[in-house]
Design a protein that fits this description.
This protein has 2 domains: 256 residues, no CATH class; 75 residues, no CATH class. Helices cover 70% and strands 2% of the residues. The protein has 19 helices and 4 strands. One of its GO terms (molecular function) is membrane insertase activity. This is Membrane protein insertase YidC.
């Protein structure tokens, strides 16, 4: 670790200078040799660094959003090459290159902090060894060696020996208890931050290499920090615990105010937004208006949660506008009510026997309804003289046989035709 820290010695002087400036301020309040003065100086260093890294964090969020936009294309690639993992990976890399998306952008804040982290480690190691470094001269060095945070010296480590800890004016038990608690808190905050990102702010309907990467980091990073933490000085543990808490709070803000489309966080956010619009009749706040504006701009490309939100506005008689506001609209209300109507049921297909029976009944009904046939025939048969019956019967038989001959149909009862052929 000391060898790696020495590689970043070029920023040791700026880091030590910033710590000394904060120490002057907090020393005036708490005292120069107190652990509060030196500990809060390290915390203030973290806050200053994280404020400077906000542009990188914004870039990270944009890259994450680009990854979400590519989810449908990634899913299509997965379905197309599901039996060929190598080709699937090649197509994914090609897609990243074409769209200019970097799946490793989530590591940018950590990579950017690394030089400051190792520089601070180098400064604290010099303090533990009794050496001046950067702008920390001998009086400041003596003051830092006397500073204790809850009984643990600023430069003490979990793995330090009894003699080394005693030289710093502390007991080994106090040092190991304090460092163990800080290591557990550091690892737990890292795990909670990643887990919060995976469970609330990621669209879980599509599995991609990005998703697998985030899931792996959720377990790998806490283990790395737990193993490496036993070799960190107390001051470095204060630094890393502070930056983890900052990241956790920053992530919670993003999840609540700018969630990933299709995620659980977006569902909760849109539900809160719909309740607010229901209570006040308008969209309050610039951030919320920007959210409504983005949903309107998507048009037919909205996800299910966004369509549900637009339908909810329609039920209230409101329509979302392009500028992010809402206005009363009877058309939106009618569309929302029409969208909730039950779907028309398709008639069940009848069996062949039922269709034949229906055709036969229809034919019989038509014959009985033909005007001037059935009644006249019955009267003719009743009024006709007895000697005419054989003659009329013969004629009817002859006409029947001629019709059969013309049609070419076989004798006997005929099967009714299919309704489509009739």
């Amino acid at each position: 670790m000391d060898t790696i820290a020495s590689l970043f010695s070029f920023i040791t002087w700026p880091v030590s200078w910033v710590i000394v400036q904060f120490h002057k301020f907090y020393g005036w309040i708490f005292g120069d040799d107190t652990g509060w003065a030196w500990g809060l100086s390290i915390v203030s260093l973290v806050v200053l660094i994280r404020i400077c890294l906000i542009p990188l964090f914004v870039k990270q969020i944009k890259s994450t959003r680009n990854m979400q936009v590519l989810q449908p294309k990634m899913k299509a690639i997965q379905e197309r090459y599901k039996s060929d993992k190598q080709r699937q990976s090649e197509e994914m890399m090609k897609l990243y290159k074409e769209t200019g998306t970097n799946p490793l952008s989530s590591c940018l804040p950590i990579l950017a902090q690394s030089p400051f982290f190792f520089a601070l480690y180098h400064v604290l190691s010099a303090i533990a060894s009794g050496k001046t470094i950067g702008v920390i001269d001998q009086p400041l060095l003596d003051s830092a060696r006397q500073a204790h945070i809850f009984g643990a010296p600023l430069a003490a480590k979990f793995m330090d020996s009894q003699d080394k800890v005693a030289a710093l004016g502390a007991s080994l038990t106090d040092v190991r208890v304090i460092t163990a608690i800080m290591i557990v808190m550091m690892s737990a905050s890292q795990f909670f931050t990643q887990r919060q990102l995976m469970t609330k702010n990621v669209d879980l309907t599509v599995k991609t290499p990005y998703m697998q990467q985030q899931k792996m980091l959720m377990y790998v990073f806490p283990l790395i920090f737990a193993v490496m933490g036993i070799n960190f000085p107390v001051g470095v543990l204060v630094y890393w615990l502070t930056t983890n808490v900052w990241t956790m709070g920053q992530q919670m803000y993003v999840i609540n105010q700018n969630p990933t489309p299709g995620s659980k966080a977006q569902e909760q956010y849109l539900n809160r937004l719909l309740k607010s619009v229901t209570a006040h009749g308008e969209v309050r706040g610039r951030t919320r208006r920007n959210t409504v504006k983005r949903v309107v701009a998507k048009g037919p490309d909205r996800n299910d949660l966004e369509r549900k939100f637009i339908t909810g506005l329609g039920k209230l008689g409101l329509a979302a506008q392009e500028d992010g506001t809402v206005e009363k609209s009877e058309t939106a209300l009618a569309e929302a009510e029409g969208g909730t109507a039950p779907k028309r049921q398709q008639p069940k297909r009848q069996t062949k026997a039922k269709r034949q029976t229906a055709v036969a009944q229809t034919g019989a009904a038509k014959e009985s309804e033909e005007p001037g046939t059935g009644s006249k025939t019955s009267l003719t048969k009743q009024d006709a003289p007895q000697d005419d019956k054989p003659k009329s019967a013969g004629k009817s038989a002859a006409s029947g046989s001629s019709r059969q001959a013309k049609s070419g149909q076989r004798k006997g009862p005929q099967r009714p035709k299919h309704p489509s052929k009739k």
